[in-house]
């Protein structure tokens, strides 16, 4: 299905934003916990993949600064102890059992055990201040229950990739072939999912009951009056290795066999959670400088590791060593039905 109005707006925002902070985060842990939507539940209703700081836990007490609680991060920037997590993708076999789809590494984290690429976008207009998030801030993009097309996600089907994890076809920005639901064809090079968070804040509340009402998406030239504070627009990118499940394994009627961990075969229910955890004023300094990876590379297809001298980078080998043992212990890779349908 082609773009919804919201997705078109997000795509336009992405295209307009010339200031792009882009960095890699390898996998921290994959487990059935969701301290934002289901705090205290062990296990939570469905599986998530998590990157970022190792202070991730069952409750994520908002009164605690997780940048002070974490001892390492899986992200490129050593000051970012935030946590980012999304649903997990599964392959549904003809006999009704399920297998977790492994992730592919994004560019700049070759060799990592999965992970995500994180973007912080700020507007072209340098006179518009961009306010960094505060300790205790958290938000949700999309909902697990969504089954109709008002998606905050864009899906891309790749035909293949090379040794440097350059995926093809991979036009810059948003392609007309991108969809807001799961691709209906075989994607030998994987399925990419980009999930966009709101970029306007009410300026008061660090959270809300549904983890969404305190923030809003910008749909015009400025943030709405109800949410007047411009914050960086986060979007996260994950690539799933769907190519290992070739067409001989698909349902006999040819229907696409992938389903998200909350039991969603459409893709509209793909969602992402964010809990702020940057150290001190590091993120504000990056926003004030309007850090941009394109400033560090004249080639728009080549993304450097950093592109932000205001922040401190760590080697990928160091980031990859930061991991966390499952709290809700579960075998991730057995065939079975590791899904709670919602």
Commentary on this structure:
Strands 1, 2, 3, 6, 7, 8, 9, 12, 16 and 18 form a ten-stranded antiparallel β-sheet that branches. β4 and β5 form a beta hairpin. The model has no long low-confidence stretch (mean pLDDT 87). Helices cover 8% and strands 24% of the residues. The protein is built from four helices and 18 strands. It has helices at residues 5-16, 66-69, 282-288, 316-321, and strands at residues 19-31, 48-52, 83-87, 89-92, 98-100, 103-104, 115-122, 138-141, 153-158, 160-161, 167-168, 190-196, 200-201, 215-216, 229-230, 233-240, 258-260, 272-275. The protein has one domain (5-321). It is mainly beta and 342 residues long. It is globular and about 55 Å long. It starts with a helix and ends in a 21-residue tail after the last helix. Keywords: Signal.
